[in-house]
Design brief:
Layout lengths: L3 H23 L3 H22 L23 H32 L13
Helix pairs in contact: 1-2, 2-3
């Protein structure tokens, strides 16, 4: 049975990914595109945590009882979310560093004005 919390979490994750993707498609600035990508990636955090959510579950450390005891929250999903946060921060830093280098070399961060980068 899906709860209202689960529906709201999945809806919020979907909304963040759609808003981020729309921002990437409509951006006239490379910095705006990087920020929009970060917004879309934050939707994946909520999605992963919503997948691992269990009603009335305890944290894995406290749920050390025998089989059939209270349910525990899946720690793998939490580890994947933490990994997603680290990867997102790394990708954002790399893309912003590339944007700074493009601005230094070409004098603009407008993707339409960067004709030299086309293959």
């Amino acid at each position: 049975m899906t709860t209202l919390l689960t529906v709201v979490a999945f809806g919020t994750a979907f909304w963040l990914v759609v808003v981020g993707a729309y921002g990437i498609l409509r951006s006239d600035d490379l910095v705006h595109a990087v920020v929009s990508l970060s917004v879309a990636q934050s939707g994946t955090y909520i999605l992963l945590l919503a997948v691992g959510y269990q009603r009335d579950a305890t944290i894995p450390i406290l749920g050390a009882g025998g089989a059939g005891s209270t349910p525990i929250v899946d720690p793998v999903v939490q580890a994947m979310t933490l990994t997603d946060v680290v990867v997102s921060a790394t990708v954002t830093a790399l893309l912003l560093a590339l944007t700074v280098q493009i601005a230094k070399r070409h004098g603009t961060v407008d993707p339409d004005a960067l004709r030299e980068l086309r293959g």
